[in-house]
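I am still getting used to backbone structure tokens and would like to learn alongside you. Please make up or recall a protein chain and show it to me in full. Would you write everything just below, so we can both look at the same thing?
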Amino acid sequence: MSDKEEFIKKLTSIEGIGKAKALQIYENGFDSIEKISKASVDDLAKVKGVSKDLAKKIKDSLAKEKTEKAEPPKKEERIEEKKEPEKEEQVEIVEEKKEYEVKLKPELLPQIKRALKIRELVKKKKPEFLRQEWFRYKRLSENWRRPKGLTSKMRKHMKYRISVVKIGFRGPKEARYLHPSGFEEVMVCNVKDLEKIDNKKQAIRISGTVGTKKRIEIEKKADELGIRILNRLNK
């Protein structure tokens, strides 16, 4: 969990603050407990939707939590240890550790390797896209839907509303539809499908409809041909 998510979770635990209001407080510069404790009630009340009473409540609850953490824990009463009777010598069973198998890697062009790294960085920065009014009505799920309505603040891209899906959040074209390892995924249902696979660029994913017996045969044949399996049965 990131610092932002942890901070918003802490704010939403206070009565009267939802996820949207917590995000609004975070985006207005109060992104840590220290900043809120240093700020005055009037400064907090300047945030849209936060009254003076609510601002005071936030400061009091965070200050109370801070003092509780600072207090040293109470000393537990020592319990006299009972002397246990001597046990017979037990033979330790040492499990043999399996050697780590190096996974197969694809042969990639430099521009594709670069695109995969960029895609990873873009994914880390990408915000969570949520449905309009998801916090207001229980019947609405959090699954993304395009915002509609003339007065919709989310459709108008107001600063205090969460981000909307845009083309700018998309990763580079070269890395599109590739597995994080760099392989192109191919669905396989039987042993014959392995004949069409290029083991330098493609990796297989065994279909969920395949039974255990046929799955073992596919895995065995794939190992012989040097093809990487993305959902191996015995990892």
